[in-house]
Amino acid sequence: MNIEKFLGEKNYNFKDIVEEFKVIDKFKEVKQNPKFHGEGNVYEHTKLVCSEVLKLEEWEGLEDKEKVILYTAALFHDIGKVITTREEDGQIISPKHAIKGAKMFRYLAYREYEFDKSIREEIAALIRYHGLPLYFIEKEDIDYHLIKAAEITNMKLLYLLGKCDLLGRYCEDKAALLERVFYFKTYAEELGCFYGPKKFKNDYTRFLYLTGNKVYPGAEIFDNRSFEVIIMMGLPLAGKDTYIKCNLKGVKVISLDDIREELNISPSKDFGKVGAVAFSKAKEYLRRKESFVWNATNLRRENRQKLIRLCTAYGAKVKFVYLEVPYRELILRDNKRERYVPIKVIDNMIKNMDMPEAEEIC
């Protein structure tokens, strides 16, 4: 789907738009805490938020692509409540609905709607961080959280989404909460990360800061990393092997698929043994300060973090190469493959995948 063309043809009419996205109907079944959302269910809230987007005085000044991203983010910002909402101690809560909602949206946008990747990820990032303008003041390290968010999120659109999220709800303390959102804009502007990512003195300083080291962004820290580890990332059959052959000739490769074949282990069984062999090979290259490629799906953040920690401990610079092809193309390739990957397995990977975070791109 060309979402830009679609929204233009529908003239941003909520009623016409939701007919195409049937998942929005499920929002009607999701209750909200009346203390914070007197407007009712998630559907009613979403409708109001989308209406507020069109009323923004900033709306006409946005570029067409920005309008598409902001409106679609508003449409799906609470999709995570479909699977997270529950009643606890007499209160309706939706823990981690933003994080899970970003994953739900990515799954639908990739598998069902086939949105353009760059637009999809900008929308997913807004969904992931949509609560930040309201709750940033409660963070332990405010500067870090805002600077990190600005690495992958359009903070201007995030501010507008946060404002509309509040305007689209009925609650007693709305005016005070809106002041918080306005302060988010002011704070991010003063921090230097509202109109784009925070500027660091060099890439190494950026890497150290984003990985939690207490360094000053303006410090020019000497980069002593002398070799590179390239981590491939993508669904099965996304083209990782082909990319390596065409672009990384002569670089050593650790392929988890190759190790499985050597050990005659099924992809669904005994990853521990495969992983142990792969990490052992990686340590050999790392000790020699020799660049190499780690070729696997690497779709889960926790798995990538283990690898990043290992590589950086040896003084390696880590680079991610993410590849994808349209879902239908992926399934066609899979059907032609000798070692067929069940569609359920692929779909589960898509549902649970974590795109690289700012601190991983080092």
Report on this model:
By secondary structure, this protein is of the alpha/beta class. The protein has two domains: 3-191, Hypothetical protein af1432 (Orthogonal Bundle), CATH 1.10.3210; 227-360, P-loop containing nucleotide triphosphate hydrolases (Rossmann fold), CATH 3.40.50.300. It is built from 18 helices and six strands. The strands form two sheets. Strands 4-5-3-6 form a four-stranded parallel beta sheet, with helices on both faces. It has a two-stranded antiparallel sheet with strand order 1-2. The longest helix has 18 residues, at 174-191. The two termini are 33 Å apart. The model has no long low-confidence stretch (mean pLDDT 94).
Strand order of the largest sheet: 4-5-3-6
The CA-CA distance between the termini, in Å, is 33 Å
| Number of spatially distinct domains | 2
CATH class of the largest domain: Mainly Alpha
